[in-house]
C-alpha cells in the first residue's frame, strides 16, 4: 500500500542553505554589473584625483576623502534592484514552482526574502571594504590623512540599515505584484503629483505633510541617511526613523508573503 | 518470446495477453519450462500497467499454463501444446468468425461453406 | 430505464478523495461539486474538454488553488491544512512549460529539486536524464516545450512519490519521446507502488495504462468508474430496424450516442448487455452486433453533450 510510506518534508536548514545558494546564483548578473560599476568608479576617482593634483595642487583634494552617510547611496541603489534579481521570472502569477515545493508558502517566501537580504548585507560589506581601500589608496596618492577609517560609527551602521530598507521596500512590490515597476513608478508619480497639486493650490500644510514623508524627522530620507547638514550628515532623528521604516516595511513584506494568490 | 497487442482489439488487455501467451505455447514459440518475460519487462515493452500484466500472469497460473518459481519468475508449463489449449484457441477463432458472419448477415452454414471453398481454392493455388 | 452513469468509486483505500469541490473564477464556474475517489495504486485518467476543470482539480490537491467549498485529501491528509506534507508526497508535471527557474541550468535545477525531496534517487534521476536526453548545461528558459516537459518528468519521478499528478505529460513531445515516456511510466509503476492521476488529450496513448477514468465537463463530474466497470457496462449495439421504427423509448436514459442511417441504428448504451438486448429486441429491432469500445470511443461517448 502506497500510503504507509509517506515521505518527509525537507529540513528547514537544508531549504535555507539551498535558497541562499540559489538566490546567489539568481543575482549573479546584478553582482557582475555592480562590481563592474565599482571598478569604474574607482578608476574615475583615482584618475580625477591624479589630474586634480597636477592641475590644482592646492584644491580640497588634499583634505582627504570623507565618508558620510550619503556615501551609502550607490549601495542603496543596488539594494533597490536586488529583489528583481531574487524573484527573477517569478511574478506571482508564475510563481507556482516555488509554491509547489513541500514547504509552507508563507515561510518559504520569507526564507527566500531573507536569503536575498543576506546577500545584500554581504554586498554592503564588500562596498564598505571598497570604500576603505579607495580612501586608503587616495590618501597614499595625495598624502592627505585617511579620514574614512576614523569616521563616526553610526554612518557605517547606516549603510547596512539603508540597504535593508531599500531591499525591504522593493521586495514588497516584487513579492506582492506582477507589475512591481508599475506600483513603484505609480507611487512616485502619485506622490509628486500630490505635492505639486497641493503647492499650486495653495495648500502649504498638505504639501509640507506630504514632503515630510521623505524629508521629515521620521521621513524616509532621515531613515536612510540621517539629517543633511552643511556638507555632511548628522544623526538627527535617525535612531527613531530608521527602526520605524524597517518595522513598517517588514510588516508589509510579511503581509504580501503570506497572502494567498493563484 | 515476443508479445504484441492489436490496437484494434477492444477486449480487456489482460485477456489479450493471456491469449497471446496461449498462442505462443500452442505454436511452440514458448517451449516447456522456458521463462516468460518479467512483469516489469513486459509492462515496459507493451506500455501496459504492470498490474494488468500481473493479472494476466495470475490468470495463466490459475489455468495451469504457467508456473511460478519463487524469486526466479514465471515459466511455461510443460505439455501445453496439446489438445485443451488448441481447442481454446480454435474456439476464439470460431467466435470471431461467427461474430463477423452475423454482422454481415450470414448463416453458420454459409460461413462454413465459404471457409471450405476458400481453403480448397488456396490449396489448389499453392500446388501450382 | 434510467441507468445513471456511476459517479462514485467505492471500496478500498483511497489515495485521493475530494468532497464537493466548488470553485468560481469571477463568474466562471471552474469546479462544480466535484467528488472524486482515486483508489490507492490506481492509474486514474481525468478526461474532459479544455476548461473542464482537470488542471484546476490537480492544483487543488497541491493547494495552488483554494476552493470556495469542499475539501480534498491525499493519503488522509487535508490538502489545505497539511499542504507541505501532502506536497512532499506528490510528483507534479504541470500543464505550463515555463515551470522551474527559467534562469537556472537544467542540471542545477535537478540538484535544487533533489534537496527539497529527501527521497531523491540520484541514480534514477541520472537514468531518466539519459533516457530523456536532457541537456544539463542549458537554461530552463530556452528549452522548447517538449524539452522542458522532459525535465519536469524527471523532476517528478526521481523522488519516487506515492502520488503522481501528470497534467498533459506528453504534450509537446515528438512521437518517439511520447512512446518513451509511456515506457518510463510503466517502468516506474513496476518499480515503485504509485498512484497516478493523469490528464491527457491523447487518450489512445494511455489506453493500456489507465485503470480508472473520471469524466469532467464544465467543471462537473459526469462519470467516474474503474476500467473493468467501463468495459462491462458500455457497449455499442448495431441494430437492424424495420421501416418507420418508433424507436426504443425504454432505453432513453442510458443512451449516450445514437447514429442512424436508413434501416440501421448504432447505439452506444450504458447498461447491462442482456437487459439492453432484450429491450431492443422487444422494441422490434434485430441486434446484429455488440462490441465493447476502445477507451477513446468510450471517452467520446461519455463526453457527449447530449445528455
Describe the structure.
By secondary structure, chain A is an all-alpha fold. Chain A has one domain. Helix content of chain A is 70%, strand content 2%. The radius of gyration of chain A is 22 Å and the shape is globular. Chain B has 128 residues and is mostly helical. Chain B folds into two domains: 13-76, Arc Repressor Mutant, subunit A (Orthogonal Bundle), CATH 1.10.10.10; 83-126. Chain B has five helices and two strands. Chain B has a two-stranded antiparallel sheet. Chain B is elongated. The mean pLDDT of chain B is 89. Chain C has helices at 54-61, 83-87, 106-116, 122-131, 145-157, 175-191, 227-233, 273-282, 295-302, and strands at 14-25, 28-34, 37-39, 43-47, 69-74, 77-78, 90-93, 163-167, 195-199, 212-217, 220-226, 234-240, 255-261, 264-270, 286-292. The longest helix of chain C has 17 residues, at 175-191. The chains are: A mainly alpha (262), B mainly alpha (128), C alpha/beta (307). Chains in contact: A-C, B-C. The interface between A and C is large, with 31 and 42 residues.
Indicate the topology:
The complex is a heterotrimer of chains A (262), B (128) and C (307).
Chain A: H1 12-26, H2 28-55, H3 73-86, H4 96-100, H5 105-142, H6 153-176, H7 180-200, H8 204-215, H9 220-225, E1 227-229, E2 232-234, H10 238-258
Antiparallel strand pairs in A: 1-2
Helix pairs in contact in A: 1-5, 2-3, 2-5, 3-5, 3-6, 5-6, 5-10, 6-7, 6-10, 7-8
Chain B: H1 13-27, H2 39-46, H3 50-62, E1 66-69, E2 73-76, H4 83-103, H5 108-126
Antiparallel strand pairs in B: 1-2
Helix pairs in contact in B: 1-3, 2-3
Chain C: E1 14-25, E2 28-34, E3 37-39, E4 43-47, H1 54-61, E5 69-74, E6 77-78, H2 83-87, E7 90-93, H3 106-116, H4 122-131, H5 145-157, E8 163-167, H6 175-191, E9 195-199, E10 212-217, E11 220-226, H7 227-233, E12 234-240, E13 255-261, E14 264-270, H8 273-282, E15 286-292, H9 295-302
Parallel strand pairs in C: 4-9, 4-10, 7-8, 8-9
Antiparallel strand pairs in C: 1-2, 1-3, 1-5, 5-6, 10-11, 12-14, 12-15, 13-14
* Alpha-beta content class of chain A: mainly alpha
Helical percentage of chain C: 25-40%
Which blocks of ≥5 consecutive residues of chain C have pLDDT under 50?
none
Measured distance between first and last alpha carbons of chain C: 14 Å
* Widest β-sheet, arrangement of strands of chain A: 1-2
Tally of helical runs of chain C = 9
The most extensive contact between chains is:
A-C, 31 and 42 residues
The strands making up the biggest β-sheet of chain C line up spatially as 7-8-9-4-10-11
Predict the CATH topology of the largest domain in chain C.
Rossmann fold
Amino acid at each position: 500500500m502506497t500510503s504507509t510510506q509517506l515521505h518527509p518534508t525537507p529540513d528547514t536548514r537544508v531549504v535555507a542553505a539551498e535558497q541562499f545558494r540559489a538566490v546567489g546564483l539568481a543575482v549573479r548578473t546584478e553582482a557582475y554589473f555592480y562590481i563592474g560599476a565599482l571598478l569604474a568608479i574607482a578608476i574615475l576617482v583615482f584618475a580625477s584625483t591624479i589630474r586634480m593634483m597636477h592641475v590644482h595642487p592646492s584644491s580640497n583634494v588634499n583634505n582627504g576623502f570623507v565618508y558620510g552617510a550619503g556615501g551609502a547611496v550607490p549601495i542603496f541603489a543596488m539594494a533597490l534592484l536586488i529583489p528583481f534579481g531574487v524573484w527573477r521570472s517569478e511574478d506571482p502569477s508564475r510563481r507556482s514552482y516555488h509554491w509547489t515545493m513541500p514547504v509552507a508558502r508563507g515561510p518559504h517566501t520569507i526564507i527566500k526574502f531573507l536569503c536575498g537580504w543576506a546577500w545584500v548585507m554581504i554586498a554592503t560589506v564588500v562596498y564598505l571594504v571598497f570604500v576603505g581601500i579607495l580612501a586608503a589608496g587616495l590618501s597614499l596618492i595625495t598624502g592627505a590623512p585617511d579620514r574614512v577609517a576614523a569616521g563616526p560609527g553610526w554612518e557605517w551602521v547606516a549603510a547596512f540599515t539603508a540597504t535593508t530598507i531599500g531591499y525591504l521596500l522593493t521586495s514588497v512590490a516584487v513579492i506582492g505584484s506582477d507589475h512591481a515597476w508599475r506600483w513603484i513608478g505609480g507611487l512616485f508619480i502619485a506622490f509628486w503629483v500630490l505635492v505639486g497639486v497641493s503647492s499650486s493650490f495653495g495648500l502649504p500644510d498638505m504639501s509640507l505633510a506630504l514632503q515630510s514623508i521623505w524629508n521629515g524627522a521620521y521621513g524616509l530620507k532621515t531613515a536612510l541617511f540621517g539629517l543633511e547638514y552643511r556638507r555632511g550628515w548628522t544623526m538627527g532623528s535617525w535612531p527613531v526613523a530608521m527602526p520605524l521604516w524597517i518595522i513598517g516595511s517588514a510588516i508589509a513584506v510579511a503581509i504580501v508573503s503570506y497572502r494567498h494568490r493563484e | 518470446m515476443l508479445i504484441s497487442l492489436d490496437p484494434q482489439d477492444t477486449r480487456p488487455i489482460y485477456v489479450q495477453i493471456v491469449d497471446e501467451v496461449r498462442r505462443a505455447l500452442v505454436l511452440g514459440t514458448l517451449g516447456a519450462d522456458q521463462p516468460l518475460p518479467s512483469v516489469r519487462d513486459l509492462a515496459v515493452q507493451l506500455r501496459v500497467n504492470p498490474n494488468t500484466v500481473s493479472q494476466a500472469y495470475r490468470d495463466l497460473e490459475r489455468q495451469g499454463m504457467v508456473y511460478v518459481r519463487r524469486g526466479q519468475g514465471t515459466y511455461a508449463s510443460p505439455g501445453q501444446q496439446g489438445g485443451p489449449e488448441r481447442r481454446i484457441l480454435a474456439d476464439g477463432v470460431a467466435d470471431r468468425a461467427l461474430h463477423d458472419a452475423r454482422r454481415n448477415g450470414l448463416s453458420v452454414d454459409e460461413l462454413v461453406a465459404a471457409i471450405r471453398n476458400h481453403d480448397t481454392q488456396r490449396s489448389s493455388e499453392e500446388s501450382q | 430505464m434510467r441507468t445513471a452513469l456511476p459517479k462514485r468509486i467505492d471500496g478500498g483505500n483511497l489515495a485521493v478523495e475530494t468532497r464537493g469541490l466548488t470553485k468560481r473564477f469571477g463568474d466562471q464556474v471552474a469546479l462544480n461539486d466535484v467528488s472524486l475517489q482515486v483508489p490507492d495504486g490506481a492509474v486514474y485518467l481525468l478526461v474532459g474538454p479544455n476548461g473542464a476543470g482537470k488542471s484546476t482539480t490537480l492544483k487543488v490537491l497541491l493547494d495552488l488553488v483554494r476552493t470556495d467549498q469542499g475539501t480534498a485529501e491525499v493519503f488522509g491528509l487535508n490538502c489545505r491544512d497539511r499542504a507541505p506534507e501532502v506536497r512532499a508526497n506528490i510528483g507534479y508535471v504541470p500543464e505550463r512549460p515555463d515551470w522551474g527557474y527559467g534562469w537556472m541550468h537544467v542540471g542545477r535545477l535537478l540538484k535544487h529539486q533533489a534537496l527539497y525531496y529527501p527521497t531523491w534517487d540520484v541514480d534514477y534521476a541520472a537514468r531518466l536524464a539519459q533516457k530523456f536526453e536532457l541537456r544539463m548545461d542549458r537554461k530552463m528558459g530556452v528549452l522548447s516545450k517538449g524539452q522542458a516537459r522532459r525535465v519536469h518528468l524527471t523532476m517528478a519521478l526521481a523522488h519516487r512519490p506515492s502520488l503522481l499528478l501528470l497534467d498533459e505529460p506528453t504534450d509537446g513531445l515528438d512521437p518517439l519521446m511520447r512512446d518513451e515516456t509511456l515506457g518510463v511510466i510503466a517502468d516506474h509503476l513496476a518499480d515503485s507502488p504509485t498512484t497516478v492521476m493523469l490528464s491527457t488529450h491523447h487518450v489512445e496513448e494511455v489506453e493500456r495504462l489507465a485503470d480508472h477514468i473520471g469524466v469532467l465537463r464544465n467543471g462537473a463530474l459526469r462519470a467516474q468508474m474503474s476500467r473493468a466497470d467501463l468495459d462491462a457496462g458500455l457497449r455499442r449495439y448495431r441494430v437492424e430496424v424495420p421501416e418507420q421504427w418508433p424507436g426504443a423509448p425504454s432505453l432513453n436514459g442510458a443512451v449516450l450516442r445514437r447514429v442512424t442511417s436508413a434501416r440501421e441504428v448504432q447505439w452506444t448504451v450504458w447498461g447491462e448487455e442482456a437487459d439492453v438486448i432484450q429491450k431492443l429486441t422487444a422494441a422490434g429491432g434485430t441486434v446484429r452486433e455488440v462490441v465493447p469500445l476502445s477507451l477513446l470511443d468510450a471517452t467520446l461517448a461519455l463526453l457527449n453533450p447530449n445528455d
